[in-house]
Every structure is written in structure tokens, then in C-alpha cells.
Design a protein that fits this description.
The protein has 7 helices and 5 strands. The chain is α/β, with parallel strands linked by helices. A 5-stranded parallel sheet has the order 3-2-1-4-5, sandwiched between helices. α3 crosses α4.
Length: 157
């Protein structure tokens, strides 16, 4: 049976995850753990979301790098037109190691114009990846997700 992976990182994806879990309790919330590269409050937030979901969030991480700084030190490149190597090494590579071809991926893109365009780029860049953006489907904006989170008593990072 195909898995549904909910990629949880911030407010938008946390709300998308909660909505999906109401309809599909077998969905798997996942966080790409960036370790010490993110503020400790981000880790608090993921733990709070986990309690809100009433379900563990699977934490995956790079097998090669412990931090964004390590990626930068080795690659000597932070970001540019080709993107940020730390995203590739710390988020994309662990996801590729985890995912199966039959998986459905849920992202926290919102109905805001810029976010919707980013999701359109994801769809065109990865046409074989089964993916959805529940917040776009529901017409929810970033403002809506922040209000939704606050209504559910979860403090944003």
C-alpha cells in the first residue's frame, strides 16, 4: 500500500499535516532534522506539533553532514542560481534515501500567489513524484494557517 508522507517543517506544513491526518491517520509526518543548524525553538515547535498530532513525527537527517556549516565548509558555496547545496544535502538527499516510488508527498505550500507558483515549479520539476498541496486545494493562505495554528493552541516557532 502506498505511503502518504507529510513533510513537516514550519507553520504551513504543520497545518497541512494536521488536516491530512484527520482524513488519513496512517499518513506519516516527517521532519528533515537539521540539528544545530536551526534555532532550538524550531525543535520545540516540531515536538509541540507532534503532541498536537498525537502521533510521532519521524525525524530523518543527512548521513553525511551534521550541519549546514559542514556543507558550506566542504563545498565552499552557500547559495546562488543553482540553489543552496545545504538544502540538497540536508533535506533532498535524506528524502530521496527514505522515499519509495509509490509514495504520495504532501507539502505545506499555501494558496498565496508566490507559494502556489513554487508548487507549480515542484510539479513541473518532478513530474514523476506523486505530490499534493492540501492548503492550495483548500484555498488556505499563510495568514489562514497562522490563525489556524493559534486557534489550536500551538505556538509557532
Amino acid at each position: 500500500m502506498p505511503r502518504t508522507n507529510i513533510w513537516v517543517d514550519g507553520v504551513n506544513s504543520a497545518v497541512a499535516g494536521w488536516i491530512e491526518l484527520q482524513a488519513n491517520p496512517d499518513a506519516i509526518p516527517i521532519n528533515c532534522d537539521l540539528g544545530k543548524s536551526v534555532h532550538e525553538d524550531n525543535h520545540r515547535f516540531i515536538s509541540d506539533v507532534e503532541r498536537w498530532y498525537g502521533k510521532p513525527i519521524l525525524r530523518i537527517k543527512s548521513e553525511r553532514y551534521a550541519s549546514i556549516d559542514e556543507v558550506f565548509e566542504q563545498r565552499q558555496y552557500l547559495s546562488g542560481v543553482a540553489g543552496a547545496p545545504c538544502t540538497g544535502e540536508m533535506k533532498f538527499a535524506p528524502r530521496m534515501d527514505y522515499q519509495l516510488p509509490s509514495d504520495m508527498h504532501l507539502w505545506g505550500y499555501t494558496a498565496d500567489k508566490t507559494d502556489a507558483k513554487r508548487f507549480d515549479r515542484m510539479l513541473s520539476t518532478y513530474p514523476l513524484l506523486r505530490q499534493r498541496a492540501p492548503l492550495i486545494e483548500l484555498g488556505m493562505t499563510k495568514k489562514d494557517t497562522h490563525a489556524f495554528l493559534a486557534q489550536h493552541g500551538v505556538k509557532r516557532p
